[in-house]
């Protein structure tokens, strides 16, 4: 071996490299100036010979193997005209087996010291552009830049189908004291499959998927896949420009009729494939047409982030930055969102920053120690869910989650995020028994780190992507969920109204005979209806695990079930708050929902089910036509009880008010199967009252008791009102009247 090369080599690093323990391979590999010449070094186990040339293949220099069989080749070259990076390696494994590649170890890092500082502070809001796998061109060489955060690792390598999954070939270097490892690998193109091989401090070798990967293999395979997110041609510029002009107040005044969808089971192909999944592009066309026909304004998608187990419905995520491959590629999902926007439909994603599964290829014990999860099991595990809880105190983890939300809003133009299981994040003792949780520093059960995350997150989302919707699935009475973070609230725009849902479904489940004594379950929600900005939800959680579908929650024989359900939906649409209904419940699917099968679309051949679908369609049409049903959802002026104390009859009446005195609405709701003939009802003002919708219309499957004539309010006191109308109230029904407000 040459004397100069022998002088230059650090033999400790040489041993570490060959043992797979080196976390700074660029120190000993690549091109290095030395004295009056240059040192070239290459580590390629199993190679027979290595030759260096310039990028045109000229000026070859054959390297020498330092020790026989070592796979470490090097040479000192003294020359006036030094070779500049990049350059080519011609690696010979056999007579006809030669690999030609630019040297991965001659490229500068693409992550700056400022990037690392901001990441460590939890404030690198586009860290997804730095970490992960990114196809790019550096100094004229095309390849993929890999970067991963693994601060506890002894060494990290990129392995994949481009290097025979051999961890010796592409060890990565760590940057400063950040724990971030990086490497640019020439020639690696989109759709390459890879993982990170991590050597832990206990000498265990882990094979981990990339936490920041933009694509993954289809389960049960679980490696990451290189994806290029730069090529899609968006057509929704006008939509996005308009969205960014929305204010917090304007968003609260807009109609939101949300159709909650699990893409894999909404509709399946009968094409003989095992899953029958529609591709994102196919789904976009069919789903948009249906959503428009039904009159919904938004779709909320379950299970889009990559997850290993179908039965988790997407709520146990392993690929936070990757749309699931079940339905296609990242570009296919971009098409889905873009197409929805072209049809005037907003897209909301379920987002899960509360917990993650323990799958070996995922985030759990990522670098051999608790990294993304809290190290103390009393803070780091959900004992009843079998999942791990993020360590919200760690700034890099906070950055991972916060940037992930922005990733979907920016890269995929998603219009909003419904944040799952917020209560489990806010309370340290959520779902835990005594001894299973650790109090905060003040001895309480509030998770201060999660509170900070929500406040930080919602302020950043509002600044970076104004006009988006951030919705909390929060099931407790935590105060200020939708209050601005600047005022001490959590900063969400909306909150799911879980209290109303539980009380209302319990009320509707009762035989009408027993509803009178439980009247408070129907009316109590209006005591707190304006404490938060609410969405009234009948979601997937209510039609699984033995709870029964919506139609089968209703009491009575079949006709009574349908009448009860029409009444329930009518009251829901009249109640203040935005609306959400899970797929299949709009046509009264009888079976509970299962992710493994399609909705029972054949039920639309049955008259009752088709009439229920028509009824929900009519409710959505009414909802969008009358701003009384949405403009003042978050303002007490938008709702007023006329009568809410008639428990014996289980009858309530109320008004909804819009932006003007015109086209206000009067709701009359009868929760018993008794027809109330020639009944007097108080009204808010004199004038004419026109029936515009009744759940008892024959076209919806009702008995056909309607009030077709315009009613003129008489000066006859009722329900504490000076004026009243006399009409027939159908059994188990909601009747809606339009009126214009007039001064008395």
TrEMBL record:
Protein name: 1,4-alpha-glucan branching enzyme GlgB
Active site, per annotation: 420 (nucleophile), 473 (proton donor)
Domain Glycosyl hydrolase family 13 catalytic: 260-623
GO molecular function annotation: 1,4-alpha-glucan branching enzyme activity
Keywords assigned: Carbohydrate metabolism, Glycogen biosynthesis, Glycogen metabolism, Glycosyltransferase, Transferase
Pathway this chain belongs to: Glycan biosynthesis; glycogen biosynthesis
Function: Catalyzes the formation of the alpha-1,6-glucosidic linkages in glycogen by scission of a 1,4-alpha-linked oligosaccharide from growing alpha-1,4-glucan chains and the subsequent attachment of the oligosaccharide to the alpha-1,6 position.
């Amino acid at each position: 071996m040459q004397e100069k090369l022998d002088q230059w080599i650090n033999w400790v690093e040489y041993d570490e490299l060959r043992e797979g323990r080196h976390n700074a391979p660029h120190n000993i590999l690549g091109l290095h100036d030395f004295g009056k010449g240059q040192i070239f070094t290459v580590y390629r186990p199993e190679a027979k010979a290595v030759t260096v040339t310039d990028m045109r293949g000229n000026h070859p220099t054959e390297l020498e193997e330092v020790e026989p069989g070592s796979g470490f080749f090097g040479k000192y070259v003294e020359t006036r005209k030094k070779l500049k990076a990049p350059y080519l390696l011609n690696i010979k494994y056999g007579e006809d087996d030669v690999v030609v590649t630019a040297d991965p170890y001659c490229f500068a890092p693409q992550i700056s010291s400022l990037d690392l500082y901001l990441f460590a502070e939890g404030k690198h809001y586009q860290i997804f552009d730095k970490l992960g796998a990114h196809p790019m061109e550096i100094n004229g060489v095309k390849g993929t830049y890999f970067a991963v955060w693994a601060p506890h690792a002894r060494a990290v390598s990129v392995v994949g189908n481009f290097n025979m999954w051999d961890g010796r070939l592409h060890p990565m270097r760590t940057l400063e004291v950040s724990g971030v490892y990086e490497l640019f690998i020439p020639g690696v193109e989109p759709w390459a499959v890879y993982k990170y091989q991590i050597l832990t401090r206990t000498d265990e070798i882990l094979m981990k998927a990339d936490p920041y990967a933009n694509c993954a293999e289809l389960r049960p395979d679980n490696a990451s896949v290189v994806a290029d997110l730069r090529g899609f041609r968006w057509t929704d510029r006008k939509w996005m420009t308009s969205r960014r002009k929305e204010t917090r107040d304007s968003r609260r005044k807009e109609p939101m009729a949300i159709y909650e969808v699990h893409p894999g089971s909404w509709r399946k192909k009968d094409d003989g494939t095992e899953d029958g999944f529609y591709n994102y592009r196919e789904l976009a066309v069919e789903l948009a047409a249906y959503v428009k026909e039904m009159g919904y304004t938004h779709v909320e998608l379950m299970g889009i982030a990559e997850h290993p187990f179908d039965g988790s419905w997407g709520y146990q995520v392993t690929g936070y930055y990757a749309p699931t491959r079940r339905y296609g590629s990242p570009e296919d999902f971009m098409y889905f969102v873009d197409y929805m926007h072209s049809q005037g439909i907003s897209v909301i994603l379920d987002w899960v920053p509360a917990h993650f599964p323990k799958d070996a290829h995922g985030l759990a014990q990522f670098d051999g120690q608790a990294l993304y999860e809290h190290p103390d099991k009393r803070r780091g595990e959900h004992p009843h869910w079998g999942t791990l809880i993020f360590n919200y105190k760690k700034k890099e983890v906070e950055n991972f989650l916060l940037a992930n939300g922005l990733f979907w809003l920016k890269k995929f133009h998603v219009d909003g995020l419904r944040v799952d299981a917020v209560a489990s994040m806010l309370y340290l003792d959520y779902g835990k028994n005594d001894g299973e949780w650790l109090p905060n520093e003040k001895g309480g059960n509030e998770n201060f780190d999660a509170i900070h995350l929500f406040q930080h997150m919602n302020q950043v989302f509002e600044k970076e992507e104004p006009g988006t919707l951030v919705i909390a699935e929060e099931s407790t009475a935590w105060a200020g969920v939708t209050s601005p973070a600047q005022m001490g609230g959590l900063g969400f725009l909306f909150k799911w109204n879980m209290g109303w849902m539980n009380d209302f479904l319990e009320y509707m489940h009762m035989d009408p005979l027993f509803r009178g004594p439980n009247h408070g379950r129907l009316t109590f929600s209006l005591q707190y209806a304006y404490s938060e900005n609410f969405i009234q939800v009948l979601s997937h959680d209510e039609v699984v695990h033995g709870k029964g579908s919506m139609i089968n929650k209703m009491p009575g024989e079949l006709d009574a079930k349908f009448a009860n359900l029409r009444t329930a939906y009518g009251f829901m649409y009249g109640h203040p708050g935005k609306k959400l209904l899970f797929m299949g419940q709009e046509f009264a699917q009888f079976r509970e929902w299962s992710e493994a099968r399609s909705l029972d679309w054949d039920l639309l051949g049955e008259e009752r089910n088709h009439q229920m679908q028509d009824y929900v369609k009519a409710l959505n049409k009414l909802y969008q036509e009358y701003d009384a049903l949405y403009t003042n959802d978050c303002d007490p002026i938008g709702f007023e009880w006329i009568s809410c104390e008639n428990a014996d009859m289980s009858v309530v009446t109320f008004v909804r008010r819009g932006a003007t005195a015109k086209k206000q609405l009067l709701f009359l709701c009868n929760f018993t199967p008794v027809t109330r003939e020639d009944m007097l009802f108080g009204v808010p003002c004199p004038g004419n009252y026109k029936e515009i919708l009744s759940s008892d219309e024959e076209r919806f499957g009702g008995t056909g008791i309607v009030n077709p004539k315009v009613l003129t309010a008489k000066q006859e006191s009722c329900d504490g009102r000076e004026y009243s109308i006399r009409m027939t109230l159908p059994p188990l029904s909601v009747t809606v009247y339009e009126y214009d407000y007039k001064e008395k």
